[in-house]
């Protein structure tokens, strides 16, 4: 199977979109544009998976890169929101530490020929992160969302920690003999 399948191209688009998203997030006057671009880019995540399954283009490379693309985009935006004081440092640290830990776990398991696909808890984590980022973009326009952001931060923290623990728990069988 070729590297340049439609799902993989969409994944690379998501990675490349991080650069302009990162830059425009520093200026609140572009937040509405950033919001719509972010929604579009987030939809490519759903679309690449749908296309991969429908046309039998699922690959280990695609599964791995899809998760990396999510982490690049989301963590870059969380760092910007931290820098401009819209997210607390403890939250961004938890998200990044969890992502690095799970990526390390995936690399360790890949050495054992085990591919760890996202499960429902990982999908809940990504969905809650996506909703939080969308809400952060809308906050300057509709301040009522600031309380919602706090709730989303708490929910995202829970899903991040729980999904990380779940990945570790499900894969402890591969640690035997280490």
Automatic annotation (TrEMBL):
Cell compartments where the protein resides: Membrane
GO BP annotation list: glycerophospholipid biosynthetic process
Topology in the lipid bilayer: Multi-pass membrane protein
Listed transmembrane segments: 7-24, 30-47, 68-84, 150-168
GO cellular component terms attached to this protein's record: membrane
Enzyme type, top EC level: transferase
EC number of this enzyme: 2.7.8.5
Keywords: Lipid biosynthesis, Lipid metabolism, Membrane, Phospholipid biosynthesis, Phospholipid metabolism, Transferase, Transmembrane, Transmembrane helix
Keyword Lipid biosynthesis: yes
GO MF, one annotated term: CDP-diacylglycerol-glycerol-3-phosphate 3-phosphatidyltransferase activity
InterPro entries: CDP-alcohol_PTase-I (IPR050324), CDP-OH_P_trans (IPR000462), CDP-OH_PTrfase_TM_dom (IPR043130), CDP_ALCOHOL_P_TRANSF_CS (IPR048254), Phosphatidylglycerol_P_synth (IPR004570)
Family label: Belongs to the CDP-alcohol phosphatidyltransferase class-I family.
Name listed for the protein in its UniProt record: CDP-diacylglycerol--glycerol-3-phosphate 3-phosphatidyltransferase
Species for this entry: Marinitoga hydrogenitolerans (strain DSM 16785 / JCM 12826 / AT1271)
């Amino acid at each position: 199977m070729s590297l340049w399948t439609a799902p993989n191209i969409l994944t690379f688009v998501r990675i490349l979109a991080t650069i302009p998203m990162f830059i425009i997030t520093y200026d609140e006057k572009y937040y509405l544009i950033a919001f719509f671009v972010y929604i579009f880019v987030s939809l490519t995540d759903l679309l690449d998976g749908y296309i991969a399954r429908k046309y039998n283009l699922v690959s280990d490379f695609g599964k791995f890169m899809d998760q990396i693309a999510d982490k690049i985009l989301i963590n870059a935006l969380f760092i910007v929101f931290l820098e401009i004081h819209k997210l607390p440092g403890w939250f961004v640290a938890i998200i990044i530490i969890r992502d690095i830990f799970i990526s390390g776990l995936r690399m360790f398991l890949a050495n054992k020929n085990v591919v760890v696909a996202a499960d429902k808890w990982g999908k809940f984590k990504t969905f809650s992160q996506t909703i939080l980022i969308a809400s952060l973009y809308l906050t300057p326009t509709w301040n009522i969302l600031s309380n919602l952001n706090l709730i989303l931060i708490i929910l995202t923290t829970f899903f991040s920690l729980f999904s990380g623990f779940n990945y570790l728990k499900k894969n402890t069988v591969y640690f035997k003999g280490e």
